[in-house]
Amino acid sequence: MRALVINCTLKPSPQPSNTEALAATVIAALKGHGAEVDVVRAVDLNLKPGVETDMGDGDDWPGVHEKLLSSEILIIASPTWLGRPSSVAQRVLERMDAMLGETDGEERPVAYNRVAGVLVTGNEDGAHHVISEISGGLADIGYTIPGQAWTYWHLGPGPGPDYLDDDRGHDWSTSTGRAMASNLVHAARALSAMPLPAPPS
């Protein structure tokens, strides 16, 4: 089983990413369940604006799209900015919009029988809003969102320390992340054993 984590931090490599640090705890849990995990730091790529799988010369999205189609599990990891997902997360979802028009050999949307979850960091209280926005988009595309397929970290509204600067709340975020990983893996296995059919015509 393969999982893909798309880190939608605004910080290019090699800058430290709080979102990446929290994602590492979920990645460890996924590997504990036997999953192979790929990580994409989207801000490092040239993801052109648009809603097609390939936006032409220099577009790095086709490589990400290939990873999406080879993964049963997807995690979108985003910081919170102004109480909303990052602009990078929005770009990723816009590029994934093309998947709505793609089907497999059995005429199922390509996101069918794949599961997805959301991971959020930030020092302001917008985590549940970010989770709902991203989860809603992924469900529209065709992903199955298991119960409690998310984790987050923040220390309440207003300015404050970052995840990498403060240990408070880490135990809860890690524990919730382990549950998230378990739910994603078991839901993916269930869909593999009993796949969703193509939508009725």
UniProtKB/TrEMBL annotation:
Pfam families linked: FMN_red
Spell out where the chain crosses the membrane: none
InterPro entries cross-referenced by the UniProt entry: Flavoprotein-like_sf, FMN_Rdtase-like_dom
Q: Which residues form the NADPH-dependent FMN reductase-like domain?
A: 1-130
**What name appears for this protein in its UniProt entry?**
Flavodoxin family protein
Instruction: Give the organism, scientific name.
Output: Streptomyces marokkonensis
